[in-house]
Amino acid sequence: MIVTCVFVHVKAEHVSDFIAASRGNHQGSVVEEGNLRFDVLQSTDDPTRFLLYEVYTTPEAAARHKATAHYLEWRAAVADWMATPRHGETYRVVYPADVSRW
Amino acid sequence: MIVTCVFVHVKAEHVSDFIAASRGNHQGSVVEEGNLRFDVLQSTDDPTRFLLYEVYTTPEAAARHKATAHYLEWRAAVADWMATPRHGETYRVVYPADVSRW
Predict the structure, then answer these.
(1) N or C end of chain A, less CB within 10 A?
(2) What number is the ipTM of this complex?
């Protein structure tokens, strides 16, 4: 299993747009083969900051996400709404180690 | 629902100790009332960096975690193993909005 945390900083005037555009990416991603989670979170301290918590069974499944129509559509839609470039951090799962717990 | 991401930087010589100590905290936390997830992740780029992804149904349930025996035991065990102070960031859930999807 592999987890990618994507930290996103959105221009204040596009927060609602970002939430709306991310719905399709979430819905498409959670039905991808190998997807375990695709959580979209908004900071309670700063509503312009979001975290995408993307969990896949394999690195290959995570890579395939970036070729999907819903991802490419989202990427294009949000491109001009970033306040600063987003960045991803990758993690391996320590616990829960059992894939059935995801 | 409320998500707390705790970013942890462990001294290199205590990485294995930290993983071992976090097992009990994970196992105790996932059976707390109101807990939805308690994921323990290790950075693929830097094995001394960990992320705890703690999801609760309410802020009250998240607060109660800090009074549990497994949390207090973990906190005491890891206190001397931190390379830098750990910090938490709190998020609200955008998607999936349905608690049954957690």
Answers:
(1) C
(2) 0.96
Q: How far apart are CA A12 and CA A25, in angstroms?
A: 20
In the stretch 70-89 of chain B, residues with CB closer than 8 A to chain A read: 89
Contact A42 B94 (CB under 8 A): yes
Q: Chain A within 8 Å of B7 (Cβ-Cβ)?
A: no
Residue-wise pLDDT for B6-38, tens only, equals 999 999 999 999 999 999 999 999 999 999 999
Largest CA distance in chain B: 41
On whether the pTM is more than 0.95, the answer is yes
- Residue ranges of domains in chain A, CATH in brackets: 2-97 (3.30.70.100)
